[in-house]
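The methods section describes the discrete structure representation at length, but only in general terms. What matters is that the chain and its backbone geometry are given together, residue for residue. For illustration, here is how one protein appears when written out as sequence plus structure tokens:
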Amino acid sequence: MSGIADVWINFMNKKEGEWFDQNLRRNITGTIYYYEVLHKGSGVYLVSVMMCEEEGKAVVSTTLTDENSTLQDQLKRHSIVFNRGRNEGTYYHPLSHSYTEAGRLRYTRITNEAEVPEEIKQNFTIDKYENVSPKNPTKAFLGKLVAEVPKDKPDKMVLLYTLEKILPAFNSGEGPKPVSAAPKPESPNPSETS
């Protein structure tokens, strides 16, 4: 499943587990979903979604790659976080662009809808932070754009991670680059297959 040219996302398995949450500074428990992401331009990735319903958050990160390039090593150190949204059954993530600068992976938050890649617009509901967060926004997030994802769609969280972090990092040249869209194939929801 992906619907994006040169990208395949395959559900592998899920299990209950425990992990250390960097922001909360303690162990939390929940469901961990594992996916294999194949990107024709850069290789194979093992991506996990660690979802804790009690805390209302999900963390998506790369845990393993088939290559050991500098950029892939940097990707392993960068995760994205989804938080429980104001709308029932949804999680949201503040959007950013990934790009390379002098061989380093960089990120910048998105505030203008024109900066949102078409692939993200086509696959996600986009809104402003203050419209979806149950908390009042800090100055850092006021006006920033977010993507909403149903909480029972960890595969969509992996897709957003891939579109936001992996693909732009491996496009040629410096700065944020869009990726190309392709027809969306049918795919089972992993929460229904296990």
User: Anything to note?
Assistant: Helices lie at 70-76, 118-123, 129-132, 154-169, 190-193.
